[in-house]
Structure formats: structure tokens, C-alpha cells
Automatic annotation (TrEMBL), chain A:
<dbReference type="InterPro" id="IPR016032">
    <property type="entry name" value="Sig_transdc_resp-reg_C-effctor"/>
</dbReference>
<dbReference type="GO" id="GO:0006355">
    <property type="term" value="P:regulation of DNA-templated transcription"/>
</dbReference>
<feature type="domain" description="Response regulatory">
    <location>
        <begin position="12"/>
        <end position="128"/>
    </location>
</feature>
<keyword id="KW-0238">DNA-binding</keyword>
<feature type="domain" description="HTH luxR-type">
    <location>
        <begin position="147"/>
        <end position="212"/>
    </location>
</feature>
<dbReference type="GO" id="GO:0003677">
    <property type="term" value="F:DNA binding"/>
</dbReference>
<dbReference type="InterPro" id="IPR039420">
    <property type="entry name" value="WalR-like"/>
</dbReference>
<dbReference type="InterPro" id="IPR000792">
    <property type="entry name" value="Tscrpt_reg_LuxR_C"/>
</dbReference>
<dbReference type="InterPro" id="IPR001789">
    <property type="entry name" value="Sig_transdc_resp-reg_receiver"/>
</dbReference>
<keyword id="KW-0804">Transcription</keyword>
<keyword id="KW-0597">Phosphoprotein</keyword>
<feature type="modified residue" description="4-aspartylphosphate">
    <location>
        <position position="63"/>
    </location>
</feature>
<dbReference type="Pfam" id="PF00072">
    <property type="entry name" value="Response_reg"/>
</dbReference>
<protein>
    <submittedName>
        <fullName>Two component LuxR family transcriptional regulator</fullName>
    </submittedName>
</protein>
<dbReference type="InterPro" id="IPR058245">
    <property type="entry name" value="NreC/VraR/RcsB-like_REC"/>
</dbReference>
<dbReference type="GO" id="GO:0000160">
    <property type="term" value="P:phosphorelay signal transduction system"/>
</dbReference>
<dbReference type="Pfam" id="PF00196">
    <property type="entry name" value="GerE"/>
</dbReference>
């Protein structure tokens, strides 16, 4: 194999972890795998949004617990805007709620930090090929509490949009404020209505006020 | 500061002293005044009697004047006629009569004691050691005068003080007198004296009443002040307790975060360094040394151990995903451990609550589940979180054996205590209630929506 061929096949990866030492250890391990290229890294969720838009990596290895914005909320916004970027959650948390929330937010896989570097490698490869990957202990958790459609909680993004709606913003205004497309807002709107089982705008507003999401 | 017993005692003592002094001064003054007025009254009454006696006497004299004046001195018929007239002049019932003696003390007329007639009483001596008739004669000769002496009172047939008035009929050498008994004056005065005594008693009672009610009011005031003070102190203690609990939760959260996001991450990085070393050795086709293998295994154990401690201190899921997710996770752990089925219902929205309310409600669920595990012997638990009509309501229901919720009941076995939870919920303007029967227990915690309204926006939009 010549180096040109390798370059074409290389999977671009971005690391998001608030601990530089973890990033360092991961870099050291992944450097042995020649079909993976780490193109960038950042230590917090909000910066990850900008960097992802800039680098458009194939895979983002995303931690959850980070200052300012957690990895799940960041994942939701990234996958909303970048169709070709897969997010692989790389976290210490092993509760089902973290996994289901991550899946709702659009993550393609979930691996635990105490796994082997070999698994990290396989997971990156799997999600970059459009598959999903979960650590074995995580898979077990998922079987026990599957994500059920219709009984889902709103995601953070959906709650933000519901909150804007309740404050009297139109879809166009929300699109401009969040810097996303009108169609994306409309899609969120449909999802919110479906999850809350609500049809009218008035009921949406009442729901938001009742639950203390916005002031009456 | 609590109003001390000593202070109350001093106040009471002052009331007692003031009352005694007031009583003493008033009573003394009153007695003196009453004595004066009684004396005045007595002299007025005596004067009235004297005037009456004079009047009666002059009326009596004028009644016999037509016989006495013109007649010659030794007309015994006229004299006995006049004596009869005096005998017949009675007034004021039995006690008003006239008596007549001649200049030598021989009784001439005496309607009430006729046995005296014709006998000489010159030497008659009364209980005061005075010669009664002689003195009356002297007064009469001196132009009329008053004399007090003891004499038989006809209506009572008893000796009583009498005030006599006598005048002299010089032509006949006669002394004519009459008198009043002073016992009615005395009895009137003693009635007055009684009334005055009653007044003094009444005053005494009023002062006593005022003193007692003052003391009562002082005690009541002291009691109210002390109760208020105690209430305020209790409130302060409760607030302080909440502050301590909040601080404690803060500390736990801090350490949990430091362990989970600090030390564990460092250990993870070490783990990957060790793995990198393994991969390197493998590539160099060298066998992996056993100590390296051990280090990797032990490191994983250490990571899990620290995570367990961190989770015990404060569940990170609460901060990252909110109360609903934390409750789900907690109830799942509970079900796995105890085999008790738990059903959790919650709203579709999340991350609505600020950290301290989140933590408080999480502890309510945790403590309730702990109690159920230890005491309830339940087979089913329902956890219900909902927001309606401006209140967030958390219900934890079980179908266990229940327990005594009365305040006297011994609930010391129930972990950090339901009372503690109640205080924590109330601290967030919330309500807390436990109802228990043999069919199960329901723990209800409620928080007003006002305590967290708009929190989601502030933390997720305005901060962005």
C-alpha cells in the first residue's frame, strides 16, 4: 500500500474531552492505527460546535461531562447541522439514561472510557461506516430499557425551541435566532407536538407556562 | 435573648411592693378621714338632740305656765296637777318623758319609774361615781344644762347612756328635766363605721385584684415574649440547619465532581498510556510483562471504585440530565437490588429545576426508597412526578405494611429522617406530607412553580 491510498481511506476524527490528559492517552493509542487521523480536539462543548462546522470530521469522539455545555446537548446541535459527521459518545457514565439521551440527541454509538483502545478503534470504524456501536455493558443496559417511541422526553434543543415558541416567536424568527434552517425548526416543531401529543399552538404555550418553562 | 425568670421576678416584686404601699396609704388616709367625719357627724347629731331636748322642755314648760306663774307657792293641788301634767307628757314612744325633783332631791314626777315618787335621791350615785340628781339640779339652777349619765332605758329595760336636760322652776324650787338615750346615735354611728369598714375592705379587694391581674399580665407577657423568642430561635436554627445541609450538598457535589471529572480522568489517561505501551510492545513483537497486565486490571478497579464513591456522594446524572433521569436511574438500581417493581411517571420536559431543588427532591426519592427497602416489605412502588396548577408534585407510593405517622411514634429507624426531608422541602416554600396505613405509605412533596419558573431558559438560552 502506498501512502496516497492510505490518505484516501483515513477516517478523520475530532476529540472533545475536557481533560487534556485523556486526550493525550487516546492520541497515543490511536496513533498506532494507520487508518485513523486525528484532525482536531477541544476541551468544551460549545467550542466543539464551531470546530466541527469548520473541520467537518467523519467522527467526533465526545465526552459528556464538560463545563458550559455537556456532550449530549452539543451532539444534538452538531448532528442537526452536519449530516455526514457521526458522533461517538466516549464517557465514564454507564447509566441507561445517559445512553438513551445520547441516542435521542443523535449519537451513533456509546463507549465507556474504561474500555480498551482496541474497542475505541473498532467503534470509530463502525460509526464511520454508518453503523452503530455500543460497549457491551451499554448494550445490556439498552436491552433492559429500550428507547420507546411516543413516550420520549423532549431533548434540550426541543425544549429551547418550545420555550421560544411559548414566548411568541415564529419558526422563521427561531431559525434566525438559532442560526439553523426554517425546515429544521419546523421538523423540531413536529417532533415536539408528537412527543407532547399536542396539536395547537395555544396548547403548546399553555404546556410551557404550566411547566414553568417560561413565565406566564 | 430569652426573658429571664429573674427579670420577671423583679417585675412581680415591684407590683407587690407598690400594691402594699398603695394599700397602706389609702387605708390609712381613709381611716383617718372617716374618723374625722364620724366625729363631726356625732357632734352634729348630739347638737340636734340637744336642740330637740330644749324644744321639748320649753314646750312642756309653756304647757304648765298658766298654772305655775300666777298661783301662790304652796298650792299643793296646783302642784300635784302640774306634776300629773308632766307625768302625762310622753314623746318618742316609751323613752321620751319628763321627770321632776324638788331642790332637795325628792322625786315629784316620774312616769316610767313611779316607785321613786316622794323618795329622796339627793345622794344617788351613778356608775361614773357622780351624784346624778345633784348635777342635774346644778345645771337647772344655772339656767338649764346638759348632762350625760347612765340611766334605765324603759323600752329596753336596760341601763344605757342618757343625755339629760334640766331647767329650774324657781318659784317652786323644782327641777324639770327630760332626756334622750344616746344608744341610737351610737348604733347609727356604728352602722356608718361598718359601711366605712366595708369600703376599706372593698378598696383592699380592688388593690389585691389589680395586683394579681398585673402579676398575671406580667407572666402572660413574659410567656408570649418567650414563646415568640423561641419561635424565632427555632426558625433561625431551622434556617441554619438548612444552610448546613445546603453546604453539605455543595461539598458532596464538589467532591463528586472532582473525583469523577478530575481524578478518574487522570486515571483513564494513565490507562491509555499503559495500553499504548502494550500496543507498542506488541508491534515490537515482545511479550507483555505480567506487572503491566496487573497495573491495567488494577487501574480499572480503581476507576470503578472512585466512580462508586463519587456516585454515592452525589449522582452526576442529576446535574447532567436532571431529576427525571436521576429518578429513573435510582429506581432501576432499587429494582435490581430489591426485586421490587418500580413504576416512574414524569413530564416530557426536563432540566426545569435549579440544583438545590433537584437535589432536595432526589433525596426525598432516595430516602423514601431506603425506608421502603428497610421497613415496608412492599412489592410495588410508584413514583409520580407532575406539574399542575402552579405546583410540582412528587409522590412516592408503596403497597407495603405502612408505619405510625403520629409525632410520638419512634421513627428514629428511618434513615436521616423524614422530618429532615420535610424541613428541606419547606425551605423551598414547599409542602411535605406523609400518609400511611396498613395498605401502604404515600410520601408527597410539593414545590410551587414560582420557585423554578424560567430556570431552564436562564441556564440554556440566556447563558448561551
Amino acid at each position: 500500500m502506498n501512502s496516497d491510498e492510505l490518505d484516501v481511506k483515513k477516517i478523520t476524527v475530532m476529540l472533545v474531552d475536557d481533560h487534556p490528559m485523556v486526550q493525550g492517552g487516546l492520541r497515543a493509542c490511536l496513533s498506532f492505527y494507520e487508518d485513523i487521523k486525528i484532525v482536531g480536539s477541544t476541551t468544551e462543548g460549545k467550542e466543539a460546535l464551531n470546530k466541527a462546522l469548520e473541520l467537518k470530521p467523519d467522527v467526533i469522539l465526545m465526552d459528556i461531562s464538560m463545563p458550559f455545555m455537556n456532550g449530549i446537548d452539543a451532539t444534538e446541535i452538531i448532528t442537526e447541522q452536519l449530516d455526514d459527521t457521526k458522533v461517538l459518545i466516549f464517557s465514564m457514565h454507564d447509566s441507561a439514561e445517559f445512553v438513551t439521551s445520547s441516542i435521542q440527541a443523535g449519537a451513533s454509538g456509546y463507549i465507556l472510557k474504561d474500555t480498551t483502545s482496541e474497542e475505541v478503534y473498532y467503534a470509530i470504524k463502525a460509526v464511520s461506516n454508518g453503523k452503530t456501536h455500543f460497549s457491551s455493558s451499554i448494550a445490556k443496559v439498552l436491552v433492559e430499557s429500550p428507547v420507546r417511541a411516543g413516550n420520549e422526553k423532549l431533548t434540550t434543543r426541543e425544549q429551547v425551541i418550545l420555550s421560544y415558541i411559548a414566548q411568541g416567536n415564529s419558526s422563521k424568527e427561531i431559525a434566525r435566532k438559532l442560526n439553523i434552517s426554517f425546515r429544521t425548526v419546523e421538523a423540531h416543531r413536529r417532533n415536539i407536538k408528537a412527543k407532547l401529543n399536542i396539536d395547537s399552538l395555544a396548547e403548546l404555550v399553555r404546556y410551557a407556562v404550566n411547566h414553568g418553562l417560561v413565565e406566564s | 435573648m430569652i426573658l429571664s425568670i429573674r427579670l420577671l421576678f423583679i417585675a412581680v416584686l415591684q407590683v407587690v411592693i407598690t400594691s402594699i404601699i398603695t394599700y397602706w396609704l389609702v387605708a390609712d388616709e381613709y381611716i383617718e378621714l372617716s374618723e374625722q367625719s364620724l366625729e363631726t357627724l356625732e357632734s352634729i347629731m348630739i347638737e340636734q338632740k340637744q336642740q330637740q331636748l330644749k324644744n321639748y322642755t320649753s314646750i312642756a314648760i309653756s304647757a304648765v305656765e298658766h298654772l305655775y306663774k300666777p298661783s301662790d307657792q304652796d298650792n299643793t293641788v296646783v302642784k300635784s296637777l302640774v306634776a300629773d301634767i308632766f307625768d302625762s307628757m310622753l314623746y318618742s314612744g316609751d323613752d321620751g318623758y319628763f321627770f321632776v325633783y324638788d331642790g332637795k332631791g325628792v322625786s315629784i314626777a316620774h312616769p316610767k319609774e313611779p316607785f321613786r315618787i316622794g323618795k329622796n335621791f339627793w345622794e344617788l350615785e351613778n356608775a361614773k361615781g357622780e351624784k346624778t340628781i345633784q348635777i342635774l339640779l346644778e345645771n337647772a339652777k344655772a339656767g338649764g344644762g346638759f348632762y350625760r349619765y347612765p340611766w334605765l332605758k324603759p323600752s329596753l329595760q336596760k341601763v344605757s347612756e342618757k343625755m339629760g336636760y334640766s331647767v329650774y322652776l324657781a318659784n317652786w324650787d323644782w327641777m324639770v328635766g327630760t332626756g334622750v338615750y344616746l344608744d341610737d346615735v351610737n348604733s347609727q354611728l356604728s352602722i356608718l363605721q361598718d359601711e366605712i369598714d366595708q369600703h376599706i375592705n372593698k378598696t383592699k379587694q380592688i388593690i389585691l385584684l389589680v395586683a394579681i391581674s398585673s402579676i398575671f399580665i406580667i407572666f402572660l407577657f413574659g410567656l408570649i415574649v418567650n414563646l415568640n423568642q423561641k419561635k424565632r430561635t427555632d426558625l433561625k436554627i431551622s434556617e441554619l440547619g438548612q444552610k448546613i445541609i445546603n453546604l453539605q450538598e455543595e461539598e458532596r457535589r464538589y467532591f463528586s465532581r472532582e473525583l469523577h471529572d478530575g481524578i478518574v480522568q487522570i486515571l483513564v489517561s494513565i490507562k491509555y498510556s499503559l495500553e499504548a505501551t502494550s500496543i507498542f510492545l506488541k508491534k515490537a513483537e515482545q511479550t507483555k510483562p505480567a506487572p503491566l497486565e496487573h497495573a491495567e486490571t488494577n487501574l480499572v478497579t480503581a476507576i470503578q471504585e472512585i466512580r462508586r464513591i463519587s456516585h454515592h456522594l452525589h449522582p452526576r446524572i442529576l446535574d447532567e440530565l436532571g431529576l427525571s433521569a436521576a429518578m429513573d436511574s435510582l429506581s432501576k438500581e432499587f429494582s435490581q437490588r430489591t426485586g421490587v417493581f418500580v413504576n416512574v411517571t414524569k413530564p416530557a420536559v426536563r432540566k426545569l429545576l435549579p440544583d438545590h431543588i433537584n437535589t432536595t427532591l432526589y433525596r426525598v426519592v432516595q430516602e423514601s426508597l431506603n425506608n421502603i427497602e428497610k421497613h415496608a416489605n412492599a412489592s410495588y412502588v410508584a413514583i409520580h412526578l407532575s406539574i399542575q396548577n402552579n405546583w410540582l408534585t412528587l409522590l412516592v407510593k408503596d403497597d407495603g405494611s405502612g408505619f405510625d405517622t403520629s409525632p410520638e411514634a419512634d421513627t428514629s429507624g428511618f434513615g436521616i429522617g423524614l422530618r429532615n426531608l420535610a424541613e428541606r422541602v419547606e425551605y423551598h416554600s414547599g409542602k411535605f406530607d406523609i400518609s400511611s396505613s396498613k395498605k401502604g405509605t404515600t410520601i408527597r412533596a410539593e414545590i410551587p412553580t414560582a420557585s423554578f419558573v424560567n430556570y431552564f431558559n436562564q441556564s440554556n438560552i440566556e447563558a448561551a
